[in-house]
Write a structure and sequence with these properties.
- By secondary structure, the protein is mainly α.
- The chain folds into 2 domains: 1-51, Arc Repressor Mutant, subunit A (Orthogonal Bundle); 61-201.
- It is 75% helix and 0% strand.
- It contains 12 helices and no strands.
Length: 204
């Protein structure tokens, strides 16, 4: 990687880190470029060489994460039915969230962009519901819609807990836990016997 490219990446990382740090404590409309630059340890000219203002910074950060999120979801549409492994797919999603932990933290925080969080859920819905139609062949479209509404809210709760714990649990373990909760419900807490009973009632 050329030195100039490396310098740009480091600069953007410093700006992003400073921005998310400040955003934890105050709304975006209260953040000035001067404050951001002082926190990041850069001058205003450097900031303006990459972004037009604070809102442009937020927009570009969110666009980058949305692109990563969509890439993590892509296997849902590409995987062959016989190779469908929800845990692997969900692990990719949790890994994407882990790599964007800073923006996830502020998005879910008191000064976060709630519309951005809603966009993530909508993108997940469009991909997951199509995948569920192949995975749960006997379910109606309405049932799948309600199922996604239920599990997406639960996954947001898991993500908040994961963030609060410092994301020490691996993305793979989080995905496995999320899938078991989604597939077996309370049977996840009752052990393998309950899981097998659920499998008999709702074969996949």
């Amino acid at each position: 990687m050329p030195k100039s490219d490396h310098r740009i990446r480091v600069t953007k990382m410093l700006i992003r880190r400073a921005f998310t740090e400040i955003l934890r404590n105050k709304p975006i409309q209260s953040i000035s470029v001067k404050e951001l630059c002082e926190t990041a340890g850069i001058n205003r000219g450097t900031f303006y060489s990459h972004y037009t203002d604070i809102y442009d910074l937020m927009k570009k950060m969110e666009e980058e994460m949305l692109e990563d999120f969509q890439q993590a979801l892509q296997p849902l549409l590409e995987v062959h039915e016989e190779d469908m492994t929800p845990v692997k797919i969900t692990a990719g999603i949790f890994q994407c969230l882990k790599e964007n932990a800073d923006i996830c933290t502020v998005t879910l925080g008191p000064f976060g962009d709630k519309e951005f969080a809603a966009r993530l859920i909508r993108i997940g819905r469009d991909n997951y519901v199509e995948s569920y139609q192949r995975f749960f062949k006997g379910a109606t479209p309405r049932q799948l819609e309600y199922y996604y509404a239920f599990v997406s809210a639960g996954c947001i709760g898991m993500l908040e807990r994961w963030l609060a714990e410092g994301m020490h649990t691996s993305a793979e373990e989080m995905a496995d836990m999320a899938e078991k909760i989604m597939m077996y419900g309370i049977g996840f807490l009752r052990g393998e016997k309950a899981k097998e009973e659920v499998k008999e009632d709702y074969p996949v």
